[in-house]
Amino acid sequence: MFDSASAIVVDKLARFAKSLVKKYLPDRRFTSPCSSINYRQSPLSIFQLGAIFSGYFGTCLMAFYIFYRSVAVGAVAALIIACSLMPVKINSSIIRRKKQFRRQFLDLMTALDVAMRAGENINNAFNSALKSLLLIYNEKSDIVIEIKQILMWMENNRPLKESLGNLAKRCQIEEIKSFATVIALIEGKSDKSDEVIRKTHQVIARSIEIEMEIETIIADKKNEQLIMLVLPVIIVGVMTFLGDGFMDTIHTTFIGRLITTSAIVIFILSYALSLKITKIDV
Fold it and tell me: pTM for the full model?
């Protein structure tokens, strides 16, 4: 019966891991210099994901061993928690990548504005912007790959609105979607591309400024959050190993383990709630 239950658990975990890989694992994004990037997939490699999972599992195993003094219970609990944390970490890496790309796109708007003020049309401005951004970013950065793809589409006589629309659809960043929409409306009908670029630059810059102000305000709270996450484990660990049997009742009796489990559940829910509170989208 135990073997059957173990097989079911292993099967469910295998299916869970397979679904994670299919949904989030990054594709081979550098098969060509201008390959399209899927911003819904994590930029983390399978080796990085494995290292992160191992770190989560090892940390949780030590923490649960301190609470339960049982390797078996600690391993099962650590496996469950580690599997639960992986989608959170992957989503976090996707969000961080989009934020980074939005800042890179702001640099692109700056470079385009400078080029168009110098009298270049928007097509030549992208070439100038690429040269400028290569002084800041490497060849594998997202913005450089995207500019190269835009230029490739232009060389194939495809309108700018198509390449920008494709980028906006993949990245799902509101400012870029708005920029692509306006360019699609005015391309071939108006020469006000420089005004659109300038306005987009102002909107993204203001949005990033507000985001940085919020991050500065809640930085101390995040540090307190981290301390409150680690402190209970340290206190219980010290009392367990240096308390000369003071915590034996918690580790050996049914009531003690029930209280421990209830406290851990409350602790995890409180931490999840604190993460939700400090998550502010701009």
Answer: 0.77
